[in-house]
What does this fold into?
Amino acid sequence: METNIKSILNNYPEGSADSLIPMLQDIQEHDGFLSKEAVIEVGKYLKMPASKIFGVATFYNQFRFTPLGKNHIQVCRGTACHVLGSATVLEEIEKNIGVKSGQTSRDGIFSLEVVACIGACGLAPVIAINGNFHAKVTGESIKEILENYRNQE
Amino acid sequence: MSFLIEVNNKQIEARKGETILDALKRQGIHIPTLCHIKGSFPSGSCRMCVVENVKTDRLVTACSTPVEEGMKVLTHSPRVIESRKTIVELLLSNHPDDCLYCVRNKNCELQDLSEELQVRERRIKGVKNSNHLDRSSASIVRDPDKCILCGRCVRICEDVMGVACIDFINRGSQSVIGSAFNIGLNTSSCVNCGQCIMVCPTGALSEKSHFPELIAMLNNPEKTVVVQYAPSISVSLAEEFKLPAGLDINSLMNAALRKIGFKYVFDTTFTADLTIMEEAAELVERVKTGGTIPMITSCCPGWVKFAEEFYPEMLPNLSSCKSPQQMMGAVIKTYWAEKAGLKPENIYSVSIMPCTAKKFEAQREEMTNKGITDVDAVLTTRELGQLIRMFGIDINNIAPETADSPLGFRSSAGKLFGATGGVMEAAVRTAYNMLTGEELLRFKIEALRGLDGCKEASLDINGLIVNVAVVNGLANARILLDQVKKGKKNYHFIEVMACPGGCINGGGQHIGASEEAVKARMKALYDIDDKETIKVSHKNPEIIQIYKDFLGKPLGHKSHELLHTHYCKRDVLL
Ligand code: SF4
Ligand code: SF4
It folds into this structure.
């Protein structure tokens, strides 16, 4: 993994603090999350304390610090979804897989992410699992959806 | 250039480039602040210091707004007071409100503001904070629930200490302050200096207490509980009892310690003298034999950890001497134990330090000799104040006493250890004697005194030019060491103290002291040095005695076993 991080960093030869966010995005794109090692490497490269990088990264919702699960769930919390009950859906998912947004379930089967608007308001409340949309989900229907993914194991 | 501004309908003088806050301060107008730290770049984030700019009809932050010619300002208009009060009410809305149980009860800026602004009811109710208490560090406890996110700790840690191990994490209502990955201060590069505690307006930061165990030991008939106190304590403890800053209450402190139940009272300044004997000998040896130069002092545990993390390549430059606290611990449980006819394991050795990093130092594994720890518990100046109050001792009404002997007699050179530049001054006095066999005629090295962050001097020792430097505040150490590494500066000897001003302003001292108070403590140390006759460590009769009876000679076999140590590169999140 380390060599990959190095090669990403090499794309930013000027090594200035301005490139911190794009760098972190590239690393997450590649690894699916920001590992401790990655943060340390970036810190060394930019001569920036790890605490600062962690502070910046946690400011934005887009960064995660645990690897993705086999199935990555994105729950839309945009206005339309909210009005139609996405809070209940999120709560049900959290209960069902036992983790909160930004985390990965212990068995590694699911990871959860809350996103602003997916841009599919007509399907609200909508969730995406591994990029596949599930429309008009409810607190009830979500259980079955998750069960189906579990059974694929 | 100066001009007039109008404040509360009166003309006052203001200087171009200064902030409204500074101009008001000179006029004796007090404006409350929370995020502001003197000397640091203003962040203007807490908005406590707002004043009304009459011309623009706006509330502006006094700490970050520069004065403008002819501006009109209202500092306590109804609108201003309402706004400040609302901020306090909002801060209180998620605060735990457990003032009665809080270490900072009666010395808390949030409490003061709530009182000043007459907050008398809970107008805004919020969900109370509930985060993990971070007790992972040997020195510092962080209680994020009491944190009001002013950011002072973050800035002091970065700007003054050059460590930057903490920052804001997350955003909005989820925000907390913590180290990288929020997995505990002990995994970070925190050097335990406690400067963050000194600036925290609330009880979110405090030292790790060794109280309960100490009380138990004081009541354990099998243990002989002994105590040592650092050179700076006698001139800073007074403020814990609202006595004038810089008042030297050494003999009252001796008496108070005995009343608490400490069987023997020792003065760490004695081992400051011992440190000087060893360190000066080490310097002379390095200079004469071409050893690693510059030699750098090692009595500050904040600095030592900093070096182990950020400058591991310079560890050979550090003097191998243990700090005075650890030297005292080691000689108590060997030399003194034998004299007193006590088994080392039955001695419980306590130290009173101006410093939180000393708590960390005492538990370093290098500080244990054959399974016996040098020092068992470390209390800060503040904790000693609490202890004296807890035992109902009226410091104004007790008879003075002297420390126990041996290990209680000191020179005035050792006393200088309490301030930046003092270790260097004391070491130079003794090194001079070791090199020439004579005594320095002019003891005072003015260039190394005072609160400047970086001081240097060139000393002529019988034709041998010795270049020395003194830094305090680890951010200054960084600058100096980087120059040394690049070869831009050449020194023989460098003194580093982590805290700005040295131990007199350590992270264990009275919270809320002004710069004037710190100067008064410093002056008190210099006065002692002026007044007393034994001004050099090598003339301390108890030092002469311990070498004669026990240690042999500086850098001898016994010294190496008990008084010297080694350092290691640390694997922490940088
Ligand atoms: S103790 Fe010192 S190094 Fe540690 S967090 Fe506080 S200011 Fe920073
Ligand atoms: S811990 Fe104290 S100093 Fe640091 S941000 Fe919180 S309240 Fe301010």
